[in-house]
Amino acid sequence: MPEQHPRPLEAGITTDLRERLSYAGYLRLDLLLAAQQPRSTDAGSDELLFIVQHQVAELWMKLAIAELRAAIDCLRADRPQPALKMLARVKLVQRQLVEQWAVLETLTPSEYARIRPHLGPSSGFQSLQYRMLEFLFGNKDEAMLAVFTHDPEAHAALAALHAAPSLYDELLRFLARGGHAVPAALLGRDPRQPHRPCEALVPVLARIYADPEAHWAAYHLCESLIDLEVNHQLWRFRHLKTVERVIGQQRGTGGSSGVGFLKRALDIGFFPELFAVRTALAPPVAPG
User: How far is CA 210 from the centre of its chain?
Assistant: First the structure.
């Protein structure tokens, strides 16, 4: 084998970081890496895995929320192209969130059993940022505000999103300003309520889908929302299967039914007309 020699540092690399901004300083690694505080004494690295998994998810959700809010602002300003760029980034963030469940799935039932007593009543159900994502997508559930009454700042942040138009609301308003006959009831509806399927919207979307080239920005935005919902459902499903794999049919730490609770969430969609338009565009099937 050839003799190995240490590679010298390039001449221009900064090594004296006294009184200068460093990598660790810029990223505040002193705070970030000190935020993992396992409570168990017999779980080894398993509780560290559990904490890191959820903290990383919260960081990705923070970015997704910022991008969705910026995309909503762009739609309000009739700027679809930057909105599409932001939604594309959210879709890639969602991919990270889906794939990281595979790491948590390495936790065996017996390993989790050593961690669980230290979790108390804490649960992912209580994630403020997850609920903010759901509200941004339009799944408005006023009852969820009660979960955050112990934290006035969190409660106020979620209440503000609850009262604000969702991403879908703003897309429909954008389409209306572009000349599409979105039903007036959808444009003036109370944004605090979850979106209800509207059959009258389907032919409006069908016009866009029947000729994408003539309505490219509108079509691309609609398809981006489809991608967001599919990715979110994949995230929900991977969460469900991870929980089922690790704890089976046990109740969740926060008091939910666990797997049953997560299964019911899979029935909640965000943009029903964007799926219904596919049926409307299908050619009629000849009898017999």
Answer: 30
